[in-house]
Structure formats: C-alpha cells, structure tokens
Amino acid sequence: MPFSSEYSNICWQCLKKAPPFLRAINYGLYEGILAEAINQLKFYGVKRLSKPLGRLLHSLDLPETDGIVSVPLNTKSLRERGFNQSLLIARVTSKNIRVPLLMDILLKKRETPPQIGLSAKERLLNLKNAFEVKGNIKGLRLLLVDDVMTTGATVTECSKELMKAGAKEVIVLTLARSSMM
User: Fold this and answer.
1) What is the tally of structural domains in the chain?
2) How far apart are CA 127 and CA 172, in angstroms?
C-alpha cells in the first residue's frame, strides 16, 4: 500500500496494525502484462512462465535469508491444479539467489473457499487456522513467496504460523501487489 508520507517506509495499514512479517517486497502491480502472465501460469497451467516470472524477483534487492518458503495450497486444490504456482516461483528464486527452498515446512491443513470477492476482514476470517508448520525453523530468517498479494490476508496468516513456530523473521516476496481500493 502507499507509504504514510513521503518520509516514511511504512504504509498506513501497517502503522495502524503491525503485521507479523517484517516487510513485503512486491515486484510490480497486478495489472497489464504481469497480471496476464500470472493468470496464464495460475489458471491456464502455462508452467513454463514460472522461470521468467521467478527471474523477475531476482532483479529485486532481496535481504539475506536462511530459507525460502512458498505459500501452500491445500491437497484438494493441488490435485485440481496439478501444481502450486507459488512453489514453482519459489524454486526459481531459490536457485537464482542460492538460498535453500524449504519444502513441506508450511502446510495448508484445511480447505477454504476462494478469496475472490471477499472483503479484507472476510479474507482473514476465511484463512484463520488454515495453515500449520511442520519442521524446525527456530531462529531462521525466511522469505515467504506468493504470486499475488491483495489484502495481505494469506501472507499474514502464513507469517503468523511461521513466527509462532520460532522463525526469527519473515519477509514476504510476491510478483504482484493488487489493491482492493
């Protein structure tokens, strides 16, 4: 979201209520060719787009981290789609920046209705207690990768669980930032 002033590096939402992640880094806005490429990957199964999309993230000034975690899909969604687009992007990012990809650390333990059409508050409620951490991440600085950040509900819930499990810090990395405004 826009910063609270020209002298700030914190958005007004984060000033109002600090999120469980340290910061969010987004490559671009969810519009135009970037939105089209993400949609082709996510909804039409054009998996070969994961490499060029993942390479876009490599062009960003990323902080040092100990591991990369992708936002998970529940088992049913994974079976229907056949792949997790966030995991594909995270795999490319992991190779590009030479940081280990920590697979199967963060799991989505229950099926939730799609987030599309829900308000920010409804999105948070929809995802409450939907994620769990398996494995030891105590003291690790983690990069949490997702394709699109809209209200931040998904990355907030994932970050809460990662922090609760002992992560030192979580930094969110997405291809695109969308706005519900």
Assistant:
1) 1
2) 17
In a domain, 136, yes or no: yes
The length of the chain, given as a count of residues = 181
20, part of any domain? no
Q: Starting at the earlier edge strand, list the strands of the sheet with 169-177.
A: 23-29, 169-177, 141-149, 67-70
Beta bridge partner(s), residue 141: 169
CA 174 to chain centre: 6
- The secondary structure of residue 20, as a DSSP letter, is S
Residue at 4: amino acid letter: S
Cβ density class 93-110: b for 16+ within 10 Å, e for less:
bbeeeebebbbebbbbee
Q: Which tens digits make up the pLDDT trace of 145-171?
A: 999 998 889 999 999 999 999 999 999
Query: How would you classify the pairing of strands 169-177 and 141-149?
Result: parallel
In a domain, 108, yes or no: yes
Tell whether 125 is covered by a domain: yes
What torsion, rounded to 10 degrees, do the Cα atoms 29, 32, 33, 35 define? 60
Tokens of residue 57, six digits: 């993230």
CATH number of the domain where residue 129 is located: 3.40.50.2020
- Confidence label for 34 from pLDDT (cuts 50, 70 and 90): very high
Residue 107's domain spans which residues? 29-177
